[in-house]
């Protein structure tokens, strides 16, 4: 198999995997209705993902030492969490977080 064919098949496989994992659930859920317990459980998924990303970026990890706090991200988290409590709008939360971190990095 030539190198170009290998790359083409790899890209085609990635397209297929992406399509199946993102589009197929929407198609299937149009035909079926999930039980209420599952829908309530899935409502927490975005919160869990955002929390995991936040905690991952809140600490600086170095081999052989205790994780240290990333103070830039901690300071940017304060207005971001406040905007999350007030607005409960993901777009507002992300924008406030990006702007907060940008202001902190420009001022340091």
What features would you describe in this structure?
By secondary structure, the chain is mainly alpha-helical. The chain is built from six helices and two strands, in the order ααααββαα. It has helices at 3-22, 24-31, 36-42, 45-58, 71-87, 90-107, and strands spanning 59-60, 68-69. The chain has a two-stranded antiparallel ribbon. Helix 5 (71-87) runs antiparallel to helix 6 (90-107). The protein starts with a helix and ends with a helix. The model has no long low-confidence stretch (mean pLDDT 88).
| Unreliable residue runs | none
| H/E element order | HHHHEEHH
Helix content bin: over 70%
Question: How many alpha or pi helices?
Answer: 6
The gross shape turns out to be extended
Compute the average pLDDT.
88
Rg result: 20 Å
Let me know the number of strands.
Answer: 2
Read across the widest sheet, the strand sequence of neighbours is: 1-2
Largest sheet: 2 strands, antiparallel
Q: What is the terminal separation in angstroms?
A: 53 Å
Approximately what portion of the residues adopt beta-strand conformation?
under 5%
How would you classify the helix and strand content by structural class? mainly alpha
